[in-house]
Every structure is written in structure tokens, then in C-alpha cells.
Amino acid sequence: MSGNIAVNLKPKVIHVRDLTARCYVLRVERLGMSFRAGQSITLGVRRMRVNREYTIYSGEQDNFFDVLIRDIQDGIVSPALRRCAPGEELECAGPYGSFVIEKPEDTSRRHLFVATGTGIAPFHAMARTHPNLNYRLLHGVRLLEERYDMADYANYVACVTGEQVGDFRGRVTDYLKQHPTDPQTICYLCGNGKMLSEAYDILRGQGVPSDQLHVEAFF
User: Fold this and answer.
1) Mapping DSSP to helix (H, G, I), strand (E, B) and coil, where does residue 112 land?
2) Which residues are 216's β-sheet partners?
3) CA 102 to chain centre
4) Closest Cα to residue 39, out of 13, 14, 3?
5) Dihedral in degrees, nearest 10, Cα atoms 169, 130, 187, 101
6) 111-217 maps to which CATH number?
7) Residues ≥6 apart with Cβ < 8 Å to 3
8) Going by C-beta distance under 8 Å and a sequence separation of 6 or more, which residues neighbour residue 8?
9) Order of strands across the sheet that contains 64-70
10) CA 41 to mean position of chain CA atoms
11) 109 close to 101: Cβ distance less than 8 angstroms
12) Which phi and psi angles does 185 have, rounded to 5°?
């Protein structure tokens, strides 16, 4: 199946892995769907007939789909997916999106990934798919427990705002201001809109060309 053509599947749940009280990883069958790291799929419980879009968290070489999900209080889909038992059949469609690494085979190119919260999902897929990629990942979190699967990254910096701990005390935008980015760096930003806007302006001000800035609004 082509990663450029959306298809509809009915994968079964493999398992649910809780990360925190509010966040979990859902693993489902892949059923042969092709995709590129950074793309998304829609998922939903069949009996509910309501789907939501989630960025794929697993790598291109994996024979399953992982998605990183924040359990939204009073939400419809995220709590229902968390309650799914292994073997339950879901609705799935995709893949979607163009938030992908342009030349992953060129290990001389420096990449900067900037994420907040579950906006780290596409970068987990990219790091897993391209282990030789030259990158630094800045992850904005409130608490240390939100450093989801941090051991999976070669160069991870936790920017923590809610505790006096972490690699950097403050927001990812504070880190960017204090650690200027080389203008030759290829930058990918994923997270909340306020961060995206501020980070984009900071990086442009540091000389990074607009065609080297890739933005994905996550929530």
C-alpha cells in the first residue's frame, strides 16, 4: 500500500501502555499500511463511529502502529481507546500529512526538533526510523514524568516549567533564546500554537531561512 494514498483498515488492538495518569501509548495492528515518519492516522472505536487524528509514534520498520495519546477529561475518543482490550477492532484511516524529514539519508545535515507535550510523537517516529539522523530534540514539559520514552532519543533536552529539575529550567522558547541555532539547521516544530509562533519568530530572528522551518500544529 502506498504511503501517499489514504486507505481504510480495521486493525485490532495489541495493547495499551500507560505512561502517566493522563497519557498512554496505544498499539494496534499495522495491516500493511505504508507511511512516512511524521505522518498521522485516524483512529476510533467502531461502535462509536467517531474518529480522531493521531500522529504515528512507531517507526517505519515496525510491524505495528503506536500512537501517543493524551486522555482528555470529558473527551469522547481518547478515554474509549484507553479502555480497549487486546483484540478489539478499531476504525483506522490514513496516512496523512507532509511533516516528514526531507533527506534522512544525509547525516551531515543538522536537525532541530522542538516539541511540547505529546507533540513529541512525530519525532519519536523519526528518531526510531532514522537512528543515524543528526538531531537535537527540545521537549517542553511541565513535569518530569512527561518526558515520554526519553531513553529512545540520542540527544534529548527536557525543558521543564513545573519543577525545579530537568535539563533546562524553563520553556523551549527560553532555551532557544539562550542557545542560538545555527542558520544551517533544519528545524521541525510541533506542539501548541503559541509555542509554534514564538519559536518560529525566534529561529527566523537567528537567521534560519523560512524554507528550513517546518511547523505542525498539534493542539
Assistant:
1) strand
2) 190
3) 17
4) 3
5) -150
6) 3.40.50.80
7) 34, 35, 36, 39, 95
8) 91, 92, 93
9) 13-18, 23-29, 64-70
10) 12
11) no
12) -75, 140
Average pLDDT per block of 10 residues along the chain, 219 residues long: 69 98 97 96 90 97 98 92 97 96 91 98 98 97 97 97 95 98 98 96 98 88
102, amino acid identity: E
Question: Max alpha carbon distance in the chain (Å)?
Answer: 51
Helix (H, G, I), strand (E, B) or coil at 90: strand
* 183: Cα within 13 Å, side-chain hemisphere: 7
As given in the structure block, the three cell numbers for residue 171 are 520553556
- The closest alpha carbon to 55, from 41, 65, 45, belongs to 41
Q: Please name the helix (run of DSSP H) or strand (run of DSSP E) that holds residue 81, with its range, or none.
A: helix 77-82
φ, ψ at 101 (rounded to 5°): -75, 130
- The domain spans of the chain are 7-96, 111-217
Q: Which helix (H) or strand (E) holds 217?
A: strand 213-217
Whole-number CA gyration radius for the chain: 17
- Nearest CA to 133 out of 103, 158, 159 is that of 103
Q: Residue 156 corresponds to which cell in the numbers above?
A: 534529548
CATH architecture of 7-96: Beta Barrel (2.40)
Amino acid present at 47:
R
Q: How far apart are CA 23 and CA 73, in angstroms?
A: 11
Q: Which three cell numbers stand for residue 218?
A: 498539534
Find out whether 140 and 195 touch, Cβ atoms under 8 Å: yes
Q: What is the pTM assigned to this prediction?
A: 0.94
- How many whole angstroms separate alpha carbon 202 and alpha carbon 219? 20
- Give pLDDT, residue 177: 98
